[in-house]
Amino acid sequence: MKEIVIDLEAEKKEILKRYRALLRACKSTMQKGDKRMIRLAFDMALESHQNMRRKSGEPYIYHPIAVAQIAAEEIGLGTTSIVCALLHDVVEDTDITLDDIEREFGKKVAKIIDGLTKISGVFDYNSSLQAENFRKMLLTLADDVRVILIKLADRLHNMRTMEFMPRDKQLKISSETVYLYAPLAHRLGLYTLKSELEDLSMKYMEPVTYKFIAQQLNEKKAERENFIRDFISPIKDILNEQGLDADVYGRPKSIHSIWTKMRKKNIPFDEVYDLFAIRIILNSKPENEKSDCWKAYSIVTDLYHPNPDRLRDWISSPRANGYESLHTTVMGPRGQWVEVQIRTTRMNEIAEKGFAAHWKYKEEPNNDSGLDQWIHKVRELLSNPEANALDFLDDFKMNLFSDEIFIFTPKGSLIQLPVNATALDFAFEIHTDIGASCIGAKVNHKLVPLSYKLQNGDQVEIITSSKQSPKEDWLNFVVTAKAKSKIKSSLKEEKRKIAENGKEILERKLKSLKVTYNSDNLYKLSYFFKLPSTLDLFYNVAQGKIDVKQLKEFVASEKIVENKPEKIEFVPNEQFNKKVKGDDSDTLLIGEDLQKLDYKLSACCNPIPGDDVFGFVTVGDGIKIHRTNCPNAAKLMANYGYRIVKAKWNSQKELAFLTGLHITGIDDVGLINKITTVISSDFKVNMRSITVDTEDGIFEGSIMVYVNNTKHLDNLILKLKEVVGVSSVTRFDSHDEDMVKAS
Predict the structure, then answer these.
(1) What Rg value do the Cα atoms of the chain yield, rounded?
(2) From the CB of residue 85, how many other CB atoms can be counted at a distance below 10 Å?
(3) Is residue 175 scored above 60 in pLDDT?
(4) Percentage of residues in the chain having pLDDT higher than 70
(5) How far apart are the first and last CA of the chain?
(6) CA-CA distances (angstroms) from residue 373 to 367, 378, 415?
């Protein structure tokens, strides 16, 4: 193997060059003594990482410098953050401790770096290491939002330089990014960062689609630029006439947002018309901001017809993350809809740099800003010590991406809630005790049930009763993380009280059956009745769901000695190398060394040969194979990265795999016959089921077919599209099950 020659002198020069570029990026926020602090941090990082290299072969120090540069330039953070960014990996990867950091840079820097350091040591793999690390990071966020902002800068640089990583690592990191970090960037108002994180994740998770959309955008670039020029020219002229100083330009939508639209509306790329948005940035004085934006809106809508349903006024009521802008959609000169965003320079900086820019415009930090309210909510969520890290993560994520609605209290105060929030969510938002004792609500003076979905602008009055207590079915309709966690902890408390009685009952019953009451037997009992914990065992006994007859069956069972509940640990792949059953043994190779192991195809996405797939080690159900674009893939990889194993198709056998096709078109005599002829006769493909529906001359059908691989499926789709009357053929998953339970 050819030895790589490293030019240390050239590297030293490059490190110095990058460090100087970082100092230039920090110039605007630097105060007296800051340069010395940054130099101290840089020297410590340089020395700590001196013998370390990245997967690309570059010196490791390039990474912390780049993270600090992103924090300064793209997020707009100050000196403390730059110091933390330079040192963010030293505690985790080198001999330097948090005490060393505190001694050199003070408590604040040490606390932020602690928040950025992953948990190490003994860990129960029944839980999720990623979820625990994320919760730890958020605990520090409750004190200092810079932890998250530096983490986002770190993640962005890792995503930008991920081409040297192995494929399974790329998938795991991309999933985690799109599942957690992009929503976080969105919540903090960092829209540019969010778009880039989503695009980079898609580049690795959906490489073919990503390249296709990028190529299409590139091919139509000239045509798009001509359209934008024609569209904005008259707007610029009238803005100048009216004395409004403004920049007007078109910006392309991100590849990920175009792909999301294609999937949501089930349309091809050619039918996505809003590939760009027009932006009008006004240079206004603070007192004229609102009136100038509405003047510009009036000019645009005089020139082009607006869509009345598509006006979004985030200037009068900014989003919870501080975003202010006027959005409207107008009919362009060539008969296509164009989105126009109108905002001022200040609003634009907040839209680009989120809350980091907010602080710049706030002389005095106050508790009314959306960020402070949001951090307060995170703090409340974290205050529930019982919460399982994964439950917490699910509840937390759910409230990251949702749009807000504005609800009024009886006295006229404004409360922001996520879309689809119910009257019960509103009650918990006001106060935990009000939520717990809520029996109904009056919305706009009309009585409604607790599950009533609130609309923007509703005025809500809550009705309570001292006899009311939280119910299990409440969890089915509340959407806010606060309501969910409070209901769960209340139900747990109730369950614990009932379980205390069950404990005594079980002790007496076991005594009468001459079974020793000890933790070993309680484990065996829980396993015998397939219950997740001894608490559930006591609870079921108290509720009368487990009686003496069933306990006798347990005693009689021979499994008493052998069966001990298995705890999933991260075990090497060899332990799964059992005798393989069935004919499909050699169609998949699994693990680092791609062996033939036992597996099951997951029902949530029905993978077929040729699909990009991965293996997931389940508890008690072996390895399950999922498509990398399975609806549950991002969640599984983001939460259980250590259970993911490589999987690759080995096309040695012609086997049949079930998949679904969704067909739409213009209804015509004999259309179904033509479709089934293509499937059965031309392609010799077996059909399992076909359902057809026609309405007002439009035909819609779903067909479940058996195919050999993705090539076979693609050819079948192409052939079906050639049938006269068929307008679209798309693959779908046979049935969307809930996420595979991983515990």
Answers:
(1) 30
(2) 34
(3) yes
(4) 80
(5) 45
(6) 7, 9, 11
Report the alpha-carbon distance of residue 427 to residue 410 in Å, rounded.
Answer: 12
SS3 191: helix
At residue 596, does pLDDT exceed 80? no
Q: Is the pLDDT of residue 451 over 50?
A: yes
Condensed to tens digits (0 to 9), the pLDDT of residues 387-412 reads 566 666 666 655 555 567 778 888 87
Q: Between 521 and 581, whose confidence is greater?
A: 521
Total Cβ atoms within 10 A of residue 691: 9
Q: How many CA atoms lie within 13 A of 712 on its CB side?
A: 22
CA atoms within a 13 Å half-sphere pointing along the CA-CB vector of 703: 24
| Catalytically annotated residue among 93, 230, 493, 621 | 93
Nearest to 179 by CA among 401, 376, 2: 401
Enter the tokens of residue 428. 């918990």
Per the document, the length of the chain is 743
Residues 158, 79 contacting (CB under 8 angstroms): no
Among the listed residues 47, 92, 386, 500, the single catalytic one is 92
| Section 62-82 average pLDDT | 89
pTM: 0.66
Token pair for residue 116? 């950025």
Whether the per-residue pLDDT at 729 is higher than 90: the answer is: no
3-state DSSP call for residue 112? helix
pLDDT at 652: 47
Mean pLDDT of 428-443: 89
- Residues 6 or more apart whose Cβ sits within 8 Å of residue 271: 265
Stated as kind and residue range, the H or E segment containing 467 is: none
Average pLDDT over residues 338-351: 89
592 is catalytic: no
Return the residue matching tokens 């019960």: 424
CA distances (Å), 662 to each of 133, 253, 497, 657, in order? Answer: 41, 28, 51, 17
- In angstroms, the CA 606 to CA 598 distance is 17
Window from 84-93, 118-127, 270-279, 623-632 with minimum mean pLDDT: 118-127
Q: How far is CA 185 from CA 75, 198, 472, 633, 740, in A?
A: 11, 10, 33, 21, 28
Cβ neighbours of 167 (radius 10 Å) = 13
Q: What share of the chain is helix, strand, coil (3-state, %, to 5)?
A: 50, 15, 35
Residue 494 falls in the annotated catalytic set:
no
Q: Phi and psi of 36, rounded to 5°?
A: -65, -40
CA angle 333, 337, 341 (to 5 degrees): 100
Nearest to 432 by CA among 491, 375, 374, 486: 486
